Amino acid sequence: MSKSQHLEDLVIQVRRDILRMVHKVNSGHPGGSLGCTEFFVALYNEIMEQNDEFNMDGIGEDLFFLSNGHISPVYYSVLARTGYFPVDELNTFRLINSRLQGHPTTHEGLPGIRIASGSLGQGMSVAIGAAQAKKLNNDKHLIYSLHGDGELQEGQNWEAIMYASAKKVDNLIATVDLNGQQIDGSTDDVLDMGDVKSKFEAFGWIVIEIEEGNNLEAILKGMAEAKNKTGQEKPVCVLLKTVMGNGVDFMMHTHAWHGKAPNDEQLAIGLEQNPETLGDY
Amino acid sequence: MKTYTYTEKKDTRSGFGAGLTELGRTNPNVVALCADLIGSLKMNDFIAENPERFFQVGIAEANMMGIAAGLTIGGKIPFTGTFANFSTGRVYDQIRQSIAYSGKNVKICASHAGLTLGEDGATHQILEDIGLMKMLPGMTVINTCDYNQTKAATIAIAEHDGPVYLRFGRPKVPVFTPENQTFEIGKGIKLTEGNDVTIVATGHLVWEALEASKELHEKGISAEVINIHTIKPLDEKIILDSVAKTKCIVTAEEHNYLGGLGESVSRTLATHNPAPQEFVATQDTFGESGTPDQLMEKYGLNSKSIVSASEKVLKRK
């Protein structure tokens, strides 16, 4: 099997995982998870340099921080399928006594996760701190982070965005999932954020745009470009234009599936549209 | 009766600055962050000696808490510095999720706590911070009484693995604890022996408790004064042992009676050995502008109030 075929297969399998996890407990956030599936698969399989063993401090490897913690299904699925913990543990998502909390946390020692997230707007600050720790440790590896576009409505982001350029945090690639949707509707309707690209640029960031945020090749190319822009005394922002609910036709292009689980029939349709590739858990 | 004297008054925040400076020399993992209040937090010497280990965040406390949490990922021990109000209430959710729930080794160092901040008034005088911080699972809460103890506590918390809230004040207060003391987190200190009433105090009220004990002694009342510098975890044994003897207790703190040391002591007594208790604390009110002495007098947070509370609680035995 070619490497790119493996990534394509992984994308389909992760979509199945997301649908099944959320369906089983009748709760969770499939829309944003499906929209970011290709990004997570590319990030954990091609983009980041990772050590074999999980270590909280992550010295000598790239680190990722998920700020919009509600898309935990895609995070858990990709972590499991890249070897951080057993894939069948996905069965425990959102259940009592599980390490797979509704929103990610570190407290039960789930390998791969270094900070809790869920209450929005905090992740960029954390990523900046981790990036500065890397500099103090003379560790040349990079920090990656992911943020929702609706999440940018939280003011703490703008404190962090201002800080990162002022302090030349140039070992950070902060990706914004620009799917244009949030719980109550489109981001334009809820609170129009205007030109996000201009805003980041005005704050002194280098901005890379990935127009096809659900296309593995486009993601790999865009993230390689972003990586090339690090180390230039400016933080790097990637605007990843995705489709919420991507890969399941009735979930696409709507906020309706932001935080709603499919019923039995809808699950069957979603799975039919994404036939098993690497094996269900 | 053991008496305490002092030769000088110094601010507890300078004790923090001195402790941080020492940590800068002895612990290469210690880093410091500040939100535009370097002078108020007395961080200048640490910064002069370790410019690469200091992060000026600007007036953006939420971002500061997040950056501090991130710095721990890589083995650093971040000390954040700003006023107590902006160290707690303003950033409660950031501390809750990114620091306490995430179990991050951040030391939240808070100056200008309580009424003794003075003229700035109620917007800056937080009287709820102990409650806010002690309710967070895993958070250690410390309120030191003088310069020497604050310095010792600052150094000690760097060795403690986990989040810590270290609270201190603005004004100059008597220095009466030993210069080279060992600070033990969670260990109360018995300052005077007594049989009639237990006085448990924290922070700036510890000296006032000692002054009160002298006055009580002159009235023929023997008070046992205990310095509770760590509110969480609380040294229940030292309190229960004392109350077993005295049968009554006064708690004293520069904080609202709701959520503070007194409430923690009440819970301890209620679950182990109920006894009459009087609270020297603010009575669910905001503060106001004034000099520290005027405010402590008006809101009943001085030795005189502790004497009255002791006499009152004795009658309830």
UniProtKB/TrEMBL annotation, chain A:
CDD domains xrefs: TPP_TK
Cofactor: thiamine diphosphate
Keywords linked to the UniProt accession: Thiamine pyrophosphate
A Pfam short name: Transketolase_N
SUPFAM superfamilies given in the database record: Thiamin diphosphate-binding fold (THDP-binding) (SSF52518)
Keyword Transferase tagged: no
Ranges where the Transketolase N-terminal domain occurs: 14-267
Coiled-coil region(s): none
InterPro entries named among the record's database cross-references: THDP-binding (IPR029061), Transketolase_N (IPR005474)
Similarity comment text for this entry: Belongs to the transketolase family.
PANTHER family: TRANSKETOLASE N-TERMINAL SECTION-RELATED
UniProt name for this protein: Transketolase
Organism whose genome encodes this protein: Mangrovimonas cancribranchiae
Source organism phylogeny: Bacteria, Pseudomonadati, Bacteroidota, Flavobacteriia, Flavobacteriales
TrEMBL record, chain B:
Needed co-factor(s): thiamine diphosphate
Pfam family, one: Transket_pyr
Family of the protein in this entry: Belongs to the transketolase family.
Lineage: Bacteria, Pseudomonadati, Bacteroidota, Flavobacteriia, Flavobacteriales
Keyword Magnesium: no
Keyword terms, alphabetized: Thiamine pyrophosphate
Transketolase-like pyrimidine-binding domain: residues covered: 10-175
Protein name: Transketolase C-terminal domain-containing protein
